[in-house]
Amino acid sequence: MDLNIVLLGPPGSGKGTQTERLAAEFGFTKISTGDLLREAVRNGTDLGTKAKGYMDAGKLVPDALVIGLIKEKLKGSKGGVILDGFPRSLEQAKALDEVLKVGLAVDLKVDQEALIKRLTERRSCRKCNAVYHLEFNPPRKEGVCDKCGGELYQRSDDTEKVVRERFATYTERTAPLTEFYRRKGVLRSVDGMGSIDDVYKRIVAAIKAA
Ligand code: AP5
Predict the structure, then answer these.
(1) Which of 25, 69, 101, 150 could be cross-linked to 145 through a Cys-Cys bond (beta carbons 3.0 to 4.6 Å apart)?
(2) What per-residue string of b and e applies to 102-112 under the rule 16 or more CB within 10 Å gives b?
(3) What are the catalytic residues?
(4) Span 176-196, average pLDDT
């Protein structure tokens, strides 16, 4: 499918979970800035060293760094792209506009208390970035990724203190993007409450209507 999609929505709204499934089902190229930045931190690259402090504090990594990263990734991509976690500021949305025609912006809506439960009980795979939840989407074997056998860990920014900071950053810097995409006529608000399957079906309906 040639459609280019951005997934908006606050931390924990299910962007990564849904992106994974949509990419597998529709063949979209998946780009997740959070995963790319965490990989850079793990590998101790220059980008990772610069990004770490912002990520640990629940702040956005500076636009110039993330925009450069995305432009690089988009260069080699073919067919439709699904972006998880980008753009997150008006500057990023404008920069994306210059290089990619976004046909659908999905804004996932989830209650704040549900978000906190999702994030504080999330587990992620160190090897393949697959995401689990201790209650809502547990791995078959505790601490082990179903997909690749990698070790599951809790992200350092998933503590309640950092999560609240991430919400504040989202409200200040990212929430205004809904207006940017509404004006372009590509915004669809999607109810992100309910099961992972239910949310997936709603997003697929939005894709089919785009
Ligand atoms: P990033 O990794 O993008 O974090 P985020 O946006 O805060 O989003 P999350 O990954 O926390 O949540 P999600 O919406 O993907 O939810 P998930 O599917 O995992 O960014 C991390 C940091 O990197 C940022 O704080 C920033 O510092 C930096 N960064 C990244 N991009 C940047 C950018 N563009 N510019 C600048 N800085 C950037 O689901 C959460 C949990 O809920 C999981 O356990 C999952 O299993 C569960 N779950 C999902 N859906 C459901 C459901 N329907 N019901 C029950 N549980 C569910």
Answers:
(1) 150
(2) bbbbbbbebee
(3) 15, 88, 122, 155, 166
(4) 97
